[in-house]
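ESCALATION

Customer reports they have been waiting on this structure for their group meeting. Please prioritize. Original submission:
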Amino acid sequence: MTWPEGEEAGGAGGVSGAGGVHPIEAESYRILRSRIDLSRLPRFSRDVTERVIHASADFDYATDLVCDEEALTAGVRALADGAAVVADTEMVAAGITARDVVCKIREPLSERLARTAGITRAAAAVRLAFGEVGPGAVWVVGCAPTALAEILTRNVEPAFVVGLPVGFVGAAEAKDALRASGLRSVTNVSEKGGSAVAAAAVNAMLRAAAGQPDPAGGETGEAGGGLGAAR
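Update from on-call: job pushed to the front of the queue and completed.
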C-alpha cells in the first residue's frame, strides 16, 4: 500500500503552494519559538525537534529526543536521493505527505504471515516491506515496538530509522535497543511517542531534503535541499 500526498502531520493544512508555508503554520512556529529557544541545536536536529514539538505541543521533547546531527544529515541526504520510505502503520503513513509511503500492515499476507510465524502483524509487515524495498530505505516507526524490534533483528540495512513507538510495554526498551545498534536514527528516551510525532520527524527531514523554507520565515541555510549548510 502507498499513500498519496495529503495534509501533513503537525501542520494546519501543511504547506501552501510550491514550497510556501501556511500562515497558521508560520504563526504556530512563531509561538513555539517564543516559548523555547532551540537555536543552540544543529540545523537538522533543530528541524526535527521543532517539528515534533509543533505536532505534539509537548515541550518535553526538547530534552527527550535523541538526535545525532551526522546521522540526520545522512538520512536527509538519502531522502534527497530518493530513498524509499516505509511506515509501520497506516496512521504513520497518512501523516507523511511529501513522499509515497510503503505500508504493509493491512495486507492479507501480513496477517497470514503473522499467524503462521507466530509474530505480530507489525513485525510481519516489516518483513513484507523489506522484501519490496530492500536495503537503503528510511523506516518510520510510531506505533509498534515489535516493528522496531523486527527492523533490528531482520538486518534490513536501513539508511535511517525514525524510532518513536509509544507505549508502556516494550516501547522504551525497543528504542534503547535502536540506540545501542549503531544504526542512524532519531528516537527518544521515554515511553511516549506515536504516529503524529514519528510522521512529524520524517516530514522535517523531507522538508530539509526538498530545500523548503523555514516554517517561520527564518534562515534554513543554502538552497538545494538544505544539505549545503550541513556539509
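Sent to customer with the following note: The longest strand covers residues 138-141.
Escalation resolved.
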